[in-house]
Structure formats: C-alpha cells, structure tokens
Amino acid sequence: MKKSTYTAIGAFAIGAIALAAVGVALMRDGRQSGDREALFETYLEETVQGVSEGSAVKYRGIPVGSVRRIEFAMLRYGAETPRDTPEQRRARRYARIVFAIDTSNFPERKRFLEIMHRQVAHGLHVYVKSQGITGLSYLDLDYNDGLLADLPVPWRPEHEYIPSAPSLVKTLSAAVQGLVQEVHGLADTKESADAFLVEATALAGDARAALSSVSGPAAEALENLVRASAGLSALVEELVADPARILHLRERDSLQ
Predict the structure, then answer these.
(1) What is the pLDDT of residues 48-65, one digit of tens each?
(2) Does a structural domain hold residue 69?
C-alpha cells in the first residue's frame, strides 16, 4: 500500500474514535440532564398570553426550570374525556402547560417528587405572573391560601401534576363581576321595597277611611291592621335606608 493510503485509513480511524467519544459524552450528559430534570404539567382556564415554550419557571421568584410545551388539553386528553358532564366539557377547554424543573436547585434530589407531592398537599400552586411592561409572563410556584377551589381534572395526567391558581387579572375580574351583581341585587331589592312601601301606605290609608264607618270588633280589627301596616312600612323604610341590613338578613335566612 502507498503511504497516502495508510495516512487516510489512520485519519478515518482517528475521526471515528473522536466521533464515538463525542457521542458517548453527549449520551452521558443527556442522561445526567434527564436525571436532573423532572417534568410537570398544569392546566389553566384562562388566557396564556405571554407564556411560550422556553418561558421561565420560578419557585417563589427563584428560577428553577422552563416551559416545554403549551397546547389545548383536549389534544392530549380529548380521546379519553367525553362530553357527558359539565365538568368534562369544561375540562376540554383547558390550556395544558408542560414544564421542566431542574432538581439540582433543590436538596434531597432523590426524594424530589415525594417532596413536591407533599408541597402540593400544603397548597403549592402554579401562578402565571407578568414580567412587567414587556408583555411576557412566567410560571411561578407559590402557595395558595386555600380559599379557591382547584380545577376539576377528569383524566390521569401524563406527568406529575401541580394545580394552578387564577391569575391576579382573573381574580380581580371575578371580584368586580361579583360586586356588580350584588349592586344589581340591591337595586332590585330597593325597587321591590319601594313598591311594597307604596302598597302598605295605600292599605293603611284605606283602613283609616274604613274605620269611620264601622264600630265594635270590626273597628278594632281594622285598627290592628293599620298598626301592622305602619310597622311594616317602618321596617321597609329602614331596610331601604340601610341596604347592608338586607344582606345581613339574606345571610341569616341562608343559614336557617
């Protein structure tokens, strides 16, 4: 063989060995990376505007991972979720977010999932938070006060599941809508009270007019009616002047 042939074979062998070494290193790094990461998922019943693949995942503000996938929940679970109940139909509209957490950010990596399960039981939730005027958002893991119910999930999640909590915008929107409905309710109550007051006043006037033409037991009965009507009129005026008492009476009736 010519010397150039031996040189070519040697170069090929060295290149093959180098490629094999790089492949082994990449596989080892990939395994280590996989060992360091844990996949989770959550669902949102609101817009995910500002969140995208690669968005940051933080634990109480500290970066711990990133978003891997965003999709409609029905694309993954639609086949196993019928539309038989309102809960199932509601769940099919969720947005599904899959995210990875780097377990090297936490102590006791071998017990990481066990620890996360315990934290979820203690109120750990996923919040969507804005980064400010940029329009971008991120996921923040923090603790819920327990006052808000979790979304119903009628399927078995593919990855470890952490429930979500409504964003600040949705919470404020719901509070405003509730306040508006309550104001409308008070307005309806006041209108009903005003109408009742007019009727009660007219009834009292008719009863006083009737007293002039009757006597004895009939007159006494009509006088009692006038007193009762006057008492009801006073109560209605008090309720109209103090709507808060109407709410108090509603709450008392609901508890009985």
Answers:
(1) 989 999 999 999 999 999
(2) yes
